Amino acid sequence: MLARIQSIATALPQTRISQPEVRDFVAQATDKGLSPRIAAIYDSTGVESRAIAQPPEFYLGRADFPERNMVYLAEGQRLLEQAAKEALAEAGLEPGHIDVIVCVSSTGIATPSIASQMLAPMGFRADALTVPLFGYGCAGGVLGLQVAGDLVRADPARRVLLLTVELCSLAFRFGDLTKKAIIASTLFADGASAVVLSAEGDGPALGRFAQHTWPDSRAMMGWDVDELGLGLILSRDLPSFVHSHFAPVVDGFLAREGLDKAALTEPACHPGGRKVIDALEQCFAHLPAGLAETRAVLAHHGNMSSPTVHFVLKRILARGQSGPLLMTALGPGFTGAMGIVHR
To answer: Which of 75, 100, 285, 326 is the most exposed place for a label (fewest CB within 10 A)?
Structure first.
């Protein structure tokens, strides 16, 4: 039995901030302001605005990890409950109908998991299976779908709720003006998603998924842990890596699935950043409008890590087109994730 998408919902924090506002906020960390060269980066990343978990004042100073993680627990659960309620309503289900909750998140620590803490407040059954997944990073939206789909196929009677939430802004360190930190401040944002899957109905069906991890590539992306909590590892060579390493892996995956890339419509790609999208578009040169939906999500929401590809997927599915749909994302490992959705 195929696992089918019954609904997709997304949720955002209430605080929105424009790219010029972020630039001006970061500039407060130095008496001289940002150099014209650094300031110009904020105008070239493809991000226009995004949502963040707290008002800008929270990010002044040096909040320690316990304080940051308290925000993660409270705001993360609030966003997931909002997304879950919307997804369940769209699927015509009550919380008690859900058998498994898979929760993907890599921007905070929750033990017990956020999913388990949602059971009683939302009315999920006490015997619902909770499956927390940590460490997937930006690849979590695709790999989470794979795990949720496998759980449906293992028991077609199951209804599975896939949740993703990332509060990337909590890794921001005010006053850090390194190149890596500046790039992160231009891109990363906060958000959540919820996807209901089951073997019922005729919704989009999950096909084959694949994961490819390159050896000796940990320095590409990930977390370092220090007194402030989670500190970003991010390589500036990521766009060239996409072109030279990820594109052949995607081509091989499509070949194994018997799919002609030139016949595919726009894929749902995780928007790592403008230069990453530029590199991905070289892989799909047959598309006259390129990765339009991926660029639109980056512009309006930034890079929210794992939920972001679900924002793109929701927009593409709303078009009502038929045929196989490719999903891609890249995350810590360094890992490439791919999957096929049949519409």
So the answer is: 285
pLDDT for residue 1: 86
Residue 157 CB: number of other CB atoms within 10 A? 10
What pLDDT shows up at residue 231?
Answer: 74
Residue 96: burial class (beta carbons within 10 Å; 0-12, 13-18, 19+):
exposed
**Cα separations (Å) of 174 from 156, 181, 209?**
48, 9, 39
We find that the CATH architecture of domain 4-198 is 3-Layer(aba) Sandwich (3.40)
- DSSP secondary structure of 257-292: TT--GGG----EE----HHHHHHHHHHTTT-TT-SH
Active site residues: 138
Answer for the pair 146, 338: CB distance below 8 angstroms, yes or no. no
Provide the pLDDT for residue 223.
82
Please state the domain extents for the chain. 4-198, 205-342
User: Strands across the sheet with 324-331, in order?
Assistant: 129-133, 100-104, 160-167, 190-198, 4-11, 205-213, 335-342, 324-331, 268-269
Instruction: Tell me the mean pLDDT per 10 residues along the chain, length 343.
Output: 96 97 89 85 93 93 88 98 98 98 97 96 98 96 98 98 97 84 91 98 97 88 78 76 89 96 95 91 91 97 98 97 96 94 97
- Superfamily of segment(s) 205-342: Thiolase/Chalcone synthase (3.40.47.10)
For 143, 183, 224, the CA distances from 221, given in Å and listed in that order, are: 16, 13, 10
The pLDDT of residue 116: 97
Partner residues linked to 164 by β-bridges: 104, 193
272-287 b/e (C-beta count within 10 Å ≥ 16 → b) = bbbbbbbbbbebbeee
16 DSSP β-pair partners? 51
